[in-house]
Amino acid sequence: MATSDSAVDVVIVGGGFAGVTAARELSVRGRRAVLVEARDRLGGRAYTKDHDGHPMEFGGTWVHPLQPHVWSEIDRYAIETETFPVLEGLRQSVVSDGRVVDLSDDDAARALEAFDEFCAPGMTLFPEPFLETVGPDPEGLGERSMREQLDTFKAEPALRDWVEGMCCLVAFGPLDQSGATEIFRCYALAGYSAAQAMAALSATKLVKGTRELINSIAGQANLADVRLNSPVRRVIQTDDGVRVELESGEAVSAPTALIALPMNVLNSVEFEPGLSEIKQTASADRHAGAGMKCFVRVKGDIGNVSIVAPEAQAVNFAVTYDHGRDGSWLIVFSANPKKLKMTQFDDVQGMQTALQPLLPGVEVESIVGWDWSNDPLALGTWCIYRPGQLAKVLPDLRTTEGRLFFAGADSASTWRGFIDGAIESGYRSARDIDSYLTS
Ligand SMILES: Cc1cc2nc3c(=O)[nH]c(=O)nc-3n(C[C@H](O)[C@H](O)[C@H](O)COP(=O)(O)OP(=O)(O)OC[C@H]3O[C@@H](n4cnc5c(N)ncnc54)[C@H](O)[C@@H]3O)c2cc1C
Predict the structure, then answer these.
(1) What is the signed CA dihedral for 242, 420, 43, 181, rounded to 10 degrees?
(2) What is the pLDDT of residue 134?
(3) What does the alpha-carbon distance between residue 17 and residue 1 come to, in Å, rounded to a whole number?
């Protein structure tokens, strides 16, 4: 059955922050949109799930005032934020040379200095990070991986391992597959300051979860219809409009469509005519973000810890989410989940083994989270371009093709790969669609 409501201006495919923000912005401009989302919820790679009395973020979590688009939305809806991890009594450590090295305040300051030194090329490569211009690159850094960049970096072992652990956290994929430019860009966006970059990447979260923010934005989107549980199979453009076909056999038509899908899944939808070669290749190659984030319940009170580990370790970051006598919750990040040697996502024994170098003797009880890399609607985590990919795929990934417009964190101008980038792209695509429909 085909739905063709002549009052509908645009079909939005994908209900993450990009699609939902565009929906609200279009309705503010008096445009009517139908939002089509494959999952049973909005938010996409930002997913707050209640578990054990906590609103756990299985995906996107941290936000910061240095990220202007998301911060403006937080302010607009008076969303409550909090510092996380809790700083009081925080024990900071790094796994170096096979042992856990605790960092004093002085050590932590020196680790930031080492990070400043590592990221210094960001100053010349991204002289105007908010304008998406790339500066001179005589050394060919744009083609270099984080691994290659690390191989040229000298510092005392514990500080070097800490910097490598930070690379694992930013890349969230194998370092030889992640572009060095991606870490330089975050550094540049954070005012060329390691301390500010750390704050922007991992210091502030939403008390009730990203769910509150996405619901607030969606609440002001005056949509013609929201179709959850509706995977899109095919998108056909004609001279008169766009027909979006669902796997259910139904179809929705409108003069325009906004494709707000992750870069890695673009090829799982059939487009007629086909998308640009660059979009198809980018989707086939995928970005490098393929790590695993999960919440791990462990026995006893492990205290307030934040432990970073270099790439040789299966776990590259473990931070206390909650702790008490009856047990603790850790948030665990692995940049290369193959190293975890877990038989399945909630393999308690596999996780227990992987955590020993960070927390000797720790006993794992259970694991919850989301396997984004094997989720067919994401096929990856946050967007981290491969070496050379930045120059090849931007800005084509967001270039309009006929009546098809494109949005998403993966092709944002500034905080690409972040919730901020998704919102930025929602603003831009709504403006573009409105002008197209007006002209
Ligand atoms: C583990 C993890 C941790 C992260 N941590 C942070 C963080 O701390 N801070 C931060 O700012 N960002 C973080 N991010 C990144 C951030 O969550 C994403 O960049 C952002 O949410 C992406 O928004 P989007 O709208 O572009 O894409 P998505 O959220 O992926 O939205 C796309 C939507 O399209 C839907 N879809 C896919 N295929 C189809 C189809 N065929 N038909 C219909 N719908 C379809 C999907 O279900 C999804 O809802 C993290 C991401 C992950 C995975």
Answers:
(1) 80
(2) 87
(3) 29
Segment holding 206, helix H or strand E: strand 204-206
pTM score: 0.98
- Summarised one tens digit per residue, pLDDT across range 120-161 is 999 999 999 998 888 999 999 999 999 999 999 999 999 999
47 CB under 6 A from ligand 1? no
Burial code (b: 16+ CB inside 10 Å, e: under 16) for 381-396 equals bbbbbbbebbeebbeb
pLDDT in tens, 179-226: 999 999 999 999 999 999 999 999 999 999 999 999 999 999 999 999
pLDDT for res 133: 82
* Residue identifier of the C-alpha nearest atom 17 of ligand 1: 60
Q: Measured between alpha carbons, how far is 326 from 293 in angstroms, rounded to an integer?
A: 23
Q: Ligand 1 centre and the CA of 216: distance in Å?
A: 17
E-state strands within 208-326: 225-227, 232-237, 242-246, 251-254, 256-259, 270-272, 292-298, 305-308, 317-324
Long-range contacts of the stretch 229-233 (C-beta < 8 A, 24+): 229/37, 229/38, 229/39, 229/40, 230/36, 230/37, 230/38, 231/38, 231/377, 232/13, 232/36, 232/38, 232/269, 233/269, 233/270
Positions in the chain short of pLDDT 70: 1-6
Tell me the pairing of strands 33-36 and 364-369. Answer: unpaired
What backbone phi and psi angles, to 5 degrees, belong to 340? -70, -20
Q: d(Cα 73, Cα 70) in Å, to the nearest integer?
A: 5
> Which residue, judged by its Cα, is nearest atom 37 of ligand 1?
377
**421 CA from centroid of ligand 1 (Å):** 11
Ligand 1: atom nearest CA of 407 is 26
The answer to whether 73 touches 61, Cβ cutoff 8 Å, is no
Q: Which residues contact 210 (CB under 8 A, 6 or more apart)?
A: 43, 46, 47, 48, 57, 59, 60, 61, 419
Q: Name the one residue in this structure whose structure tokens are 């301390």.
A: 195
- Burial of 143 from C-beta contacts in 10 A (0-12 / 13-18 / 19+): middle
Distance CA 364, CA 349 (A): 7
**What are the residue boundaries of the structural domains of the chain, listed by start?**
2-46+209-287+381-438, 48-86+292-374, 104-193
Domain 2-46+209-287+381-438: CATH class, spelled out:
alpha beta
- Bridge partners, residue 122, by sequence: none
